[in-house]
Amino acid sequence: MVRIPVFADVLEAAERIQNHVHRTPGFTSLTLNALTGAEVFLKAENLQKVGAFKARGACNAVFALTETEAAHGVATHSSGNHAQAVAYAAGLRGIPATVVMPEDAPSVKVAAVRGYGARIVWAGTQAQDRERRLEAALEETGAIFIHPSNNFHVIAGQGTAALELLEDVPGLDIVMTPVGGGGLLAGTALAAAGCSPQTRVMGAEPETVDDAARSFRDGVIYPPTNAPTVADGLRTFLGDVNFPIIRQHVSDIVTVSEAGIIAAMRLIWERMKLIIEPSSAVPVAALFEHPDIFQGQRVGIILSGGNASLDTRLW
Amino acid sequence: MVRIPVFADVLEAAERIQNHVHRTPGFTSLTLNALTGAEVFLKAENLQKVGAFKARGACNAVFALTETEAAHGVATHSSGNHAQAVAYAAGLRGIPATVVMPEDAPSVKVAAVRGYGARIVWAGTQAQDRERRLEAALEETGAIFIHPSNNFHVIAGQGTAALELLEDVPGLDIVMTPVGGGGLLAGTALAAAGCSPQTRVMGAEPETVDDAARSFRDGVIYPPTNAPTVADGLRTFLGDVNFPIIRQHVSDIVTVSEAGIIAAMRLIWERMKLIIEPSSAVPVAALFEHPDIFQGQRVGIILSGGNASLDTRLW
Fold first, then answer.
1. Which segments in chain A show pLDDT lower than 50?
2. SS3 of residue B76 by DSSP
């Protein structure tokens, strides 16, 4: 029986993690409002610890462990922000962390995970290689697995970003997040349902990898496509913990073009002076590509992270 | 007789401009602290209106005008942030602004100035061309000239950034700004002398264009060198309004290398997710290149602006 978090778990997460993560600032831009016809509020999780909202879920999961559970440490497989987040949270609690990473992971991400004191286990380049190595590592160490998105406490933790946004900006018509594995969207949906039920919750996804949009519509979890996207962190499965929440509390998932993502990313860098990664630009792009939905609305967007490459330029 | 602003003028400026500029957030970074051995507080004027602290001085100067003075509008010569700031401030007050710009000004800056509703007058590519065209424009229109850095109200307005920083972070040992024309440094010096006299005020400058450092040492205003620097907004003269303040209240002006500026800029982009322009990176570079001064100190730095090119990469 899968245990599904509720609003009270988001509130509990907020209390549990408050000394370990930033209450990130919100930003507005008259230019963005003029260009989109919406009144937009951006929650800057790119300024969060480890540069992404993932610090929230990882801290909640790590600090929710009992002493007995925590004794053997935690483990995960990720080449992205969740790996850094688990390493960061485990370091704070002073327990070992094992991160299974693909051999082609960007060296800056490897260095960051190492910098937080985690042990890295290399595992080929395929997802199934990582899963096999993770299984082995869990058996060896007795560590607790912290899934990037389909984990009770991770989902509740991610919901704390929207909780803060909805406290800071009451009366939002819509709150929107990117959707990849579904942890942020599900947590956001719990937060909104609990503290601002009149606010609609939406997800935004690259149209080349529209598995979440199709899953949402059809009520079954589809695998992500193999198509490329600049927002490659979003190419992951929804799961059985977050999908029921998304189906119940999310009003729609929209898709956006690759060109729209890049243009939105550039706009935020150029006009708001905030470095955001491509995934964060996905909901911003939705404002431009779906004006019928957003014009005239007060829209909160969670800028999910800022770990963009500074050596390659997308425009 | 040159009229020199005092601390009370900074306080008056703060009140005059409070509805027209952002109270910008401050940021800290454990990484930056660990790397520099200092405790660093960054005041994010890159998130200010027009993307730079220049909005403060321009708003103070424009709103300090009497109705009679304002009737014929304002004018300035600048290809940089001050041009946008004057255009922005004049637009808010609803008076005409004339900006004399060089024919090789970056098109994005031209578009920004136009976007705020200012009239652009083109004037060759040399400083003396611009000065001649400005003289003519002032005669034609009867507009009031707002100098970028050597203006009573501009200096007082720029001081409001440090005023906020020193309110938000009491007990700073040092507050440091980049120095080009000297308006920000002089305003900062007034603010610190008035509200936190135990705080030392320092300027930082590219070593290839070290006229302010030499002027400070020798007590005479030297012209800027013609040497190139990535922080090209700093290649300007000190003036007779700001220099006496700098001589009286600033404890030192240090210089930094070009490589240091670029590395510091990248560090802030990469670790703090804030887009800053090269000039803003100059005081950050000073933390690394002058450890003897800054280690163990609580140092506030004004990140002066975020109008960096996104099409060329310095690293």
1. none
2. strand
Domains B7-52+155-303 and B55-145 share a fold: yes
Q: State residue A68's pLDDT score.
A: 96
User: How confident is the model at residue A108, as a pLDDT?
Assistant: 80
Q: Which among A273, A276, A311 has CB closest to B47? A: A273
> Domain limits of chain B?
7-52+155-303, 55-145
Nearest 5 degrees, angle CA B170-CA A47-CA B108?
A: 100
- Tell me the per-residue pLDDT of A167-224, one tens digit each, with 9 for 90 and over: 999 999 999 999 999 999 999 999 999 999 999 999 999 999 999 999 999 999 999 9
Contacts of B313 in chain A (CB under 8 A): 310-311, 313
Nearest Cβ partner for B273 among A306, A313, A315: A306
Q: How far apart are CA A160 and CA A164, in angstroms?
A: 6
- Model confidence, pTM: 0.95
Which among A43, A38, A85, A23 has a CA at the least distance from the CA of A177?
Answer: A43
Residue found under tokens 């240090």: B254
**Catalytic residue from among B54, B79, B149, B279:** B54
Q: What pLDDT shows up at residue A305? A: 97
Tell me the shortest Cα–Cα distance from A118 to chain B, in angstroms. Answer: 17
For residue A109, what pLDDT is reported?
A: 84
Is beta strand B174-178 parallel, antiparallel or unpaired with respect to B200-206?
Answer: parallel
Cβ–Cβ of A313/B315 closer than 8 Å? no
> B105-129, pLDDT tens digit by residue?
888 889 889 999 999 999 988 878 8
| DSSP track, A67-106 | HHHHTT-EEEE-SSHHHHHHHHHHHHHT--EEEEE-TT--
At the second CATH level, the architecture of A55-145 is 3-Layer(aba) Sandwich (3.40)
> With an 8 Å Cβ cutoff, are A310 and B315 in contact?
yes
Give the torsion sign (CA, B161, B162, B167, B170). positive
Q: Which of B92, B273, B276 to mutate to test the interface with A (most CBs of A within 10 A)?
A: B273
Strand B252-256 versus strand B200-206 pairing type: parallel
Structure confidence at residue A277 (pLDDT): 96
A273 and B276 within 8 Å at the Cβ level: the answer is: yes
Structure tokens at A9: 């778990």
CATH domain B7-52+155-303 topology? Rossmann fold (3.40.50)
Chain-chain contact of B313 with A310 (C-beta, under 8 angstroms)? yes
User: How far apart are the C-alpha atoms of B92 and B68, rounded to whole Å?
Assistant: 17
pLDDT at B298: 98
Per CATH, domain A7-52+151-303 is 3.40.50.300 = no
Show contacts of A27-33: CB within 8 Å, 24+ apart: A27/A272, A27/A274, A27/B47, A29/A271, A29/A272, A31/A271, A32/A267, A32/A271, A32/A272, A32/A284, A32/A287
> How is residue A60 written in tokens?
């909640």
Indicate the residue type of A315.
W
| Chain B hits for A46, Cβ within 8 Å | 273
At residue B4, φ and ψ (nearest 5 deg) are -105, 130
The Cα-based distances of A137 to A104, A122, A142 in angstroms read: 20, 11, 8
Q: Cα(B162)–Cα(B283) distance, rounded to whole angstroms? A: 14
Give this complex's ipTM.
Answer: 0.93
Fill in the amino acid letter for B5. Answer: P
Cα distance from B8 to chain A (closest Cα, Å)? 31
**DSSP 8-state symbol, A143:** P
